[in-house]
Amino acid sequence: MNKSLDPRVNRLNLPEGELVPKVPLDQFGTFEVFVQAKEGKEYRHEGIVHAPNRDMAFLFAKEQFSRRNTCVGIFVVETRNIYVTGFTEDKDNIYSHISDEYPEEGFTEQYEVFHLNKRGKQHEHIGSVPAKNHQHALALAKPEFIDGPPVYNIWVVKTSDILFTEEADKIIWDTLHEKKFRDAADYKAADKIKAFKERQQS
Amino acid sequence: MYGGGNTFEPMKATGIENEDPQKLAEFEARIERGEKIEPHDWMPQLYRKQLIRMIEQHAHSEIIGALPEGTWITRAPGFKRKLALMAKVQDEVGHAQLLYSAAETLGKPREQMLDDLVSGKSKYSNIFNYPAFTWADSCFISWLVDAGAIVNQLANARGSYGPYCRALDRICAEESFHLKYGHHCVIHLATGTEKQREMMQAAINRWWGPMMHFFGPPDKASVHSEILMRWKVKMSSNDDQRNQFLDMYVPKIWELGFTIPDPNLKKNTETGKWEYTEPDWEEFKRVINGDGPCNAERLAVRRTAEERGRWVRKALLAPKTEYVTPLA
Predict the structure, then answer these.
(1) Are residues A141 and A164 in contact, defined by beta-carbon separation less than 8 angstroms?
(2) In this predicted structure, what is the pLDDT of residue B220?
(3) Over residues A159-186, mean pLDDT
(4) The complex's ipTM?
(5) Which of A103, B144, B267, B286 fits a 20 to 30 Å CA distance from A32?
(6) B247 CA to chain A: closest CA distance, Å?
(7) Closest to B177 (Cβ–Cβ): which among A182, A193, A200?
(8) DSSP, residue by residue, B202-228
(9) What 3-state DSSP class applies to B322?
(10) Chain A CB contacts of B177 below 8 Å
């Protein structure tokens, strides 16, 4: 291969010849990421990260979702720990399809409930209920939340499956301190163009 | 932001004749109403396949696109430019992650997409198969290649697939500084010494051909593309996007006293369209099929990263993890 223009690439000593496809890899699992944009706002689903565990997922999520947009909190939960209801259409509230019956197994602990209020938008945290299992949590959420605006889809997550940040760690969200170089406003150049044009004309 | 036009080989015909007519009608009615399609909705195979291909190529373009600009991080003139370029390249890699996630909701795992990139099975934006010889090349990419991508991305953000639109909204918001930064760099060279101006002009001359290729060859009218337009997968034709780019940026290049290496380039005042020399589409085909100046290096860098990072991934792998498709 020719010498690269990038000194870092040259230092890699890239092997010559044909590319050998890599062997199929096992995957890291996916974690769903929820972000709180401002104090007092709900946590909203923002996207996913791939990670080997919850702690790494949190680090990746912080890098991905608070690098440019500031926020005051993030939490992550493994995708398969989210209990998802069916979806409804139009003004049909999914709660009216939720059964009041639930299996009796499990110990009572806290569950978090997320609503999808509009097609094309993202799930938002609405509240929590103490329940024995996911179906139980849904049955308990029903009387509590059914009277709000229609809900199209619900996610239920056991609180202990979520990785939260501590109140004392809030300082980690101060990510844009002295990072004006990430800001379009830091690149004003209209004066330079104007001066240039005037020079051209004279 | 690095996505290009719909520039790649047409898909092997996946017809819609085998689809359930009632479901298809409901699907089309939903798009007609301006609603987004979400991962759990029924969708025709053609829609799914075309979107996976499109979003995946866009994601590949982001990580490969980071390479020619990344070349200049260590040699960017001054601390401020280094910081900004590093931040920009970091953003692009973040954009790839957002896009891979959106494509994954359609059922293709991320590792499979990365495999297909490294093996050459799936493509990325052709323009990154060209080398960035000087700092001015890096400035051209930051300003004008990003600008071209923004034309493309703003169109796609109005498309019909929910997760892709949401990723693009986020990407567009993060882009705010890239274009300004790129323009700032070019203005600095334009208003600098004679040597700096020459360097920038040379970069424009080198990159104009690939830039015209960027939006892809003129669309051939076909039933296929008519369907994809109706389904809001493809939002505007390659020629329309090229014209929009020329309309927005040629005056800005001219105002800095630079020339564009195409004697036929001018705006037809009657039609409002730009006229230009048709770029060399044979070269475009040749480069996209692997015979460009940097194809081998770009893929080799990716493959080396995969190979040399393998032990880290292996060490971290939780053996009990089962992959599930992300939710939204």
Answers:
(1) no
(2) 76
(3) 86
(4) 0.89
(5) A103
(6) 19
(7) A182
(8) HHHHHHHHHHHHTT-SPPPP-HHHHHH
(9) coil
(10) 181-184, 186-187
Q: Look up residue B155 and give its two tokens.
A: 């169109």
CB atoms within 10 A of CB B161: 30
Q: What is the nearest CA distance from B220 to chain A, expressed in angstroms?
A: 32
Q: Name the residue among B87, B118, B326 with its Cβ closest to that of A22.
A: B118
B194: exposed, middle or buried (Cβ count in 10 Å: 0-12, 13-18, 19+): exposed
Give the list of residues 6+ apart from residue A146 with CB closer than 8 angstroms, or none. Answer: A93, A95, A96
CB nearest B36 (choices: A9, A15, A120): A120
Partner residues linked to B153 by β-bridges: none
Q: From the candidates B69, B191, B299, B307, which should be mutated to test the interface with A, based on the most A CB atoms within 10 A?
A: B191
CB contact under 8 A, A120 and B316: no
Average pLDDT (B268-280) is: 94
Q: What pLDDT, on the 0 to 100 scale, is given for residue B209?
A: 96
Phi/psi of residue B70, nearest 5 degrees: -60, -30
pTM for the full predicted model: 0.92
Q: Look up residue B68 and give its two tokens.
A: 């020619």
Mean residue pLDDT across chain A: 88
Q: How far apart are CA A193 and CA B124, in angstroms?
A: 35
- Asked if pLDDT for residue B258 goes beyond 90, the answer is yes
Query: pLDDT at residue A22 above 60?
Result: no
The per-residue pLDDT for range A97-151, each reduced to its tens digit, is: 998 889 988 899 999 999 999 888 999 999 999 999 999 999 999 999 999 889 9
- Nearest chain A residue to B72 by CA distance is A6
DSSP β-bridge partners for residue B274: B267
Per-residue pLDDT at B243 exceeds 50: yes
pLDDT in the model for residue A1 = 52
Q: Which amino acid is at A142?
A: K
Of residues B71, B256, B304, nearest to A14 (C-beta): B304
How far apart CA B174 and CA A62 sit, in angstroms, is 15
Distance of CA B328 to the CA centre of its chain: 22
Q: Tell me the count of A-B CB pairs closer than 8 A.
A: 175
- In this predicted structure, the answer to whether residue B202 has a pLDDT above a threshold of 90 is yes
